[in-house]
Design a protein that fits this description.
single chain, mainly beta, 8 helices, 405 residues, 7-stranded antiparallel beta sheet
Length: 405
């Protein structure tokens, strides 16, 4: 006989990879498979994935049967996140159909590059270099890589039209530090390790070292027309750069670089403007590459709100106003917030050569790219075919692991 879920759901509980979720019992179509069955009072049983019920039941003379079925999932990471959205309160859909992990510390950890990274969510219809689109998991390094300028090319160097760096991500020093050498603009040259602009002026040194995990790269620094060489403090990426396995998991994607005219915008407004066409004079609206940064909207959508200020109120409050005790729930229940340092984003300002920063007090405002050191947390889109392969629940001590098919 089959002990049917549909007939006696109140006597069959479930967990997924050992964690309890919403009471809606999974359906056969969920893609979940039983890992084990544990019953009370000496009862034994097995789970049949085809019949979707308990079989081979030994009631041990009990009149009632109470069992827990622990399920696991093996499939693509994209489908895993979509499946978990049916059961976990830590996953919600945003205004644009993307799935987001929310809250102070959701179970969104992934073992990637031999480090802990975290899933921002599943982003819909991310554009590939060939113009095709598909849903992709967006991942961010759990710990910052370090504190840097975003760019400090002075007026006349590369794309810079000011003394305080350029917000053109496609030729920013931070972009060149994180991405493969092939992302250096095609009209620039690499000569003896120096990146030189169209006027043959050195604007960066040793591009691509983080991408290839191959030794010393140079951090963004001030460069002027009068300088012949680019020299600065350097960072050794021989142990913290991207491994070949990690590189093979990253999807080359089109990143949007649209700008907002103000930080006094709600999260949904930031999202729309980031994907818009309004940018500072001469700046691109899109960039093709591998390693970027989170957007201001990623930060806003990661909040769950709290008992004083709920999520809806947070999302209807401009990110520039996320400061003060009245909205402290917005940042304190947001896993992307960090009280120790400010964080660069890939959200640009459209009317000045500035970029939006998440301050350590929780609000968002704009700075020029060389005004101060802020943290850089590499962010990537993963290949849609990546699979999750183990029975972990995504906690920091039980991160998901991945493999390339």
């Amino acid at each position: 006989d089959v002990f049917s879920v549909t007939k006696q759901t109140n006597e069959i509980a479930f967990t997924i990879n050992g964690s309890k979720y919403k009471n809606t019992f999974p359906t056969k179509e969920s893609g979940l498979k039983a890992n084990n069955v544990v019953c009370k009072d000496g009862v034994t049983a097995e789970w049949n994935n085809e019949l979707w019920g308990l079989v081979n039941i030994n009631s041990n003379n009990n009149s009632e049967i109470s069992c827990n079925v622990d399920f696991t999932y093996e499939g693509t990471l994209v489908d895993y996140v979509k499946m978990m959205a049916n059961y976990s309160d830590e996953l919600v859909e945003d205004d644009y159909g993307n799935l987001r992990y929310i809250g102070a510390n959701p179970n969104n950890y992934v073992q990637f590059n031999g480090e802990l990274w975290r899933i921002i969510g599943v982003m819909k219809d991310i554009e590939n270099a060939d113009g095709s689109k598909n849903d992709k998991v967006k991942l961010i390094r759990s710990d910052r890589l370090g504190n840097y300028y975003m760019d400090y090319k002075t007026n006349g160097m590369g794309s810079s039209t000011s003394e305080y760096g350029s917000t053109d991500w496609s030729d920013s020093q931070l972009m060149m530090m994180l991405n493969p050498k092939g992302r250096v603009p095609s009209n620039y040259t690499i000569d003896g390790g120096y990146v030189k602009d169209v006027n043959r002026r050195a604007i960066y040194q040793n591009p691509g070292r983080y991408w290839t995990r191959s030794g010393y790269a140079y951090v963004p620094k001030k460069v002027t027309i009068s300088e012949q060489y680019y020299n600065s403090n350097h960072i050794d990426f021989s142990s913290t750069g991207l491994t070949e396995e990690a590189r093979n998991m990253i999807s080359t994607s089109i990143w949007n670089l649209g700008g907002s005219d103000s930080s006094e915008k709600k999260t949904s407004e930031f999202y729309s403007l980031e994907r818009g066409s309004k940018v500072y004079s001469g700046r691109p609206t899109k960039w093709i590459g591998e390693v970027g940064l989170m957007y201001a909207s990623d930060y806003g959508y990661a909040t769950s709100g709290g008992s004083t200020t709920d999520r809806s109120t947070c999302l209807n409050t401009s990110l520039g106003s996320w400061i003060g005790s009245s909205v402290s729930d917005c940042k304190n229940n947001n896993w992307l917030y960090n009280s120790k340092y400010g964080q660069w984003t890939l959200s640009m300002k459209q009317n000045t050569d500035s970029v939006f920063v998440i301050y350590d007090t929780g609000f968002v405002s704009s700075l020029n790219p060389a005004s101060s050191y802020n943290s850089a947390s590499p962010t990537v889109y993963l290949d849609s075919n990546l699979k999750t392969i183990n029975n972990s629940n995504g906690a920091s001590d039980s991160p998901l692991t991945l493999k390339v098919e």
